[in-house]
């Protein structure tokens, strides 16, 4: 069989006989099938999206259902854009926008998210850098890229999932490493691309968000090679831009659905915030930043801080009229619409949620445009100005009324302590010479893989390999497996066989 003509379909490892046979259905469709067949994709069913399904007592989105919906939105965007000759011609010049590519990338984009959602990501990054001495730390997007290129084994002849260059490039929301690729590093741009800047308290630690660890940088270069000369080294491919936008849309809509079902979002509190800002926006806009900070939880103050933040970070698109219109549209649809009646689990209530989701999804997908010269904090594919502001307001609602809740913080502090203790217990186990032969086989294999990736002259090579293996191992657990493993390691579990050692 001849190799695919599209240079973006080249695979890093050439492909096994089965892999080449898969290309009969199209290389990008084969990639999608490989991703959904991976145990790492199935694992996402047990990983928190925002709130734990076990903690809520109700059916809420997990990382698997979130990924499926991102894929659905991403494909709808790609099909709409490629059906329009004006958009299609521009996208071809920029490297293409294949619906199969964006769907596959969307399905794979969260493979590396660890137990307990974004909390787990922050905790593992801190432990990786401060406890385990890994300069790259941990990042969910980089971990996803590592899984499809390095740690998921597909047959004896390949490492990773052996995906095409286009799909791997489309997974790269942040096509740079934490510290040194590309050169000059995008965190030094002014303004820096979204996610590229370092944390305010430690800018020298590298980018907050990044798409690949240093160990996968050669793969990143190879995946991006077909786009050289078309787009800047730090810019997303059009397909990555579609996937990233779809992720934002799904996050804004479907998390609001979850919080409504669980009963966390209450009409009164959301209405008070939005309507107070509408009544007092003139006064709130005029007061100083320090006065606004002292306003604390006064209704209207938080959303005024959002308005100022958008101007500060995204002045290229932030607009006061569009922001006010977005607040009004969200108030009408959410406060006077979805939240007007408490969710009672009835068929009618589910239909109401479905209609809410469908209206917003259609509104956002229909507003997608392509630009030949995006702002440094944007991509080639982006939402219209009005809808961009609406996404920001929807995301504000769940940040303000869910993520800031003390009861959620209590739950998450326990999860953070669990991960701290689990990493420490695994580190002590790895250092015990009498237990080397009884390590979990997966952990043993990951140590060998990490050691082989490092240059022989790497300082503390063995220690870094063990640290990276522990991070890889813990990141591949579900929420339940992390709890079960710590119970076993601490002696709290009375069961000899648990699902803690599945991976």
From TrEMBL:
Per the UniProt record, one Pfam family is HD_assoc
Record GO terms (molecular function): dGTPase activity
One GO biological process term: dGTP catabolic process
Instruction: From the UniProt entry, list the residue stretches annotated as the region Disordered.
Output: 177-209
PROSITE patterns referenced in this protein's UniProt entry, alphabetically:
HD
Indicate, by first and last residue, each region the UniProt record lists as having compositional bias (Basic and acidic residues): 178-191
SMART domains, A to Z: HDc
- Keywords on record: Hydrolase
Cite the InterPro entries for this sequence. Answer: dGTPase (IPR006261), dGTPase-like (IPR050135), HD/PDEase_dom (IPR003607), HD_domain (IPR006674), PHydrolase_assoc_dom (IPR026875)
Where are the membrane-spanning stretches? none
Q: Where is the HD domain?
A: 63-252
Name of this protein? DNTP triphosphohydrolase
The primary gene name is dgt
């Amino acid at each position: 069989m001849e190799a695919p003509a599209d240079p973006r379909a080249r695979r890093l490892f050439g492909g096994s006989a089965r892999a080449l046979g898969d290309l009969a259905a199209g290389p990008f469709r084969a990639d999608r099938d490989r991703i959904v067949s991976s145990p790492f994709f199935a694992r996402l069913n047990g990983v928190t999206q925002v709130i734990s399904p076990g903690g809520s007592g109700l059916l809420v989105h997990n990382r698997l259902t979130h990924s499926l919906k991102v894929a659905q939105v991403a494909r709808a965007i790609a099909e709409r854009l490629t059906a329009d000759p004006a958009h299609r011609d521009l996208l071809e010049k920029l490297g293409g926008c294949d619906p199969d590519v964006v769907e596959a990338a969307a399905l794979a984009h969260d493979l590396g998210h660890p137990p307990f959602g974004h909390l787990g990501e922050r905790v593992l990054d801190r432990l990786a850098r401060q406890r385990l001495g890994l300069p790259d730390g941990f990042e969910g997007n980089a971990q996803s890229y590592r899984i499809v290129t390095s740690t998921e084994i597909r047959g004896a002849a390949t490492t990773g999932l052996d995906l095409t260059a286009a799909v791997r490039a489309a997974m790269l929301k942040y096509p740079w490493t934490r510290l040194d690729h590309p050169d000059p590093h995008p965190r030094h741009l002014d303004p820096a691309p979204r996610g590229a800047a370092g944390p305010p308290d430690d800018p020298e630690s590298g980018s907050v968000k990044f798409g690949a660890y240093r160990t996968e940088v050669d793969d990143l270069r190879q995946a991006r090679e077909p786009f050289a000369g078309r787009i800047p080294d730090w810019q997303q491919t059009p397909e990555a831009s579609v996937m990233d936008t779809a992720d934002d849309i799904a996050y804004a809509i479907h998390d609001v659905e979850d919080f409504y079902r669980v009963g966390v979002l209450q009409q009164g509190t959301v209405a008070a915030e939005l309507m107070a800002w509408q009544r007092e926006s003139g006064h709130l806009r005029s007061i100083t930043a320090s006065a606004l900070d002292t306003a604390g939880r006064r209704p209207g103050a938080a959303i005024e801080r959002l308005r100022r933040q958008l101007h500060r970070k995204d002045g290229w698109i932030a607009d006061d009229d569009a922001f006010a219109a977005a607040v009004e549209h969200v108030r009408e649809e959410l406060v006077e619409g979805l939240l007007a009646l408490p969710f009672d689990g009835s068929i009618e209530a589910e239909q109401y949620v479905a209609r809410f989701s469908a209206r917003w999804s259609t509104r956002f997908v229909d507003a997608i445009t392509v630009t030949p010269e995006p702002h440094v904090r944007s991509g080639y594919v982006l939402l219209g100005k009005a809808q961009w502001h609406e996404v920001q307001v929807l995301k504000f609602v769940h940040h303000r009324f869910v993520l800031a809740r003390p009861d959620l913080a209590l739950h998450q502090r326990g999860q953070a302590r669990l991960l701290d203790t689990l990493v420490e217990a695994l580190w002590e186990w790895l250092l015990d010479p009498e237990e080397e032969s009884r390590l979990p086989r997966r952990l043993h294999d990951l140590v060998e893989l990490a050691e082989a990736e490092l240059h022989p002259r790497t300082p503390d090579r063995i220690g870094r390999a063990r640290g990276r293996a522990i991070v890889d191992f813990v990141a591949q657990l579900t929420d339940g497996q992390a709890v079960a493993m710590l119970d076993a390691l601490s002696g709290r579990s009375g069961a000899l066989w648990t699902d803690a050692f599945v991976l």
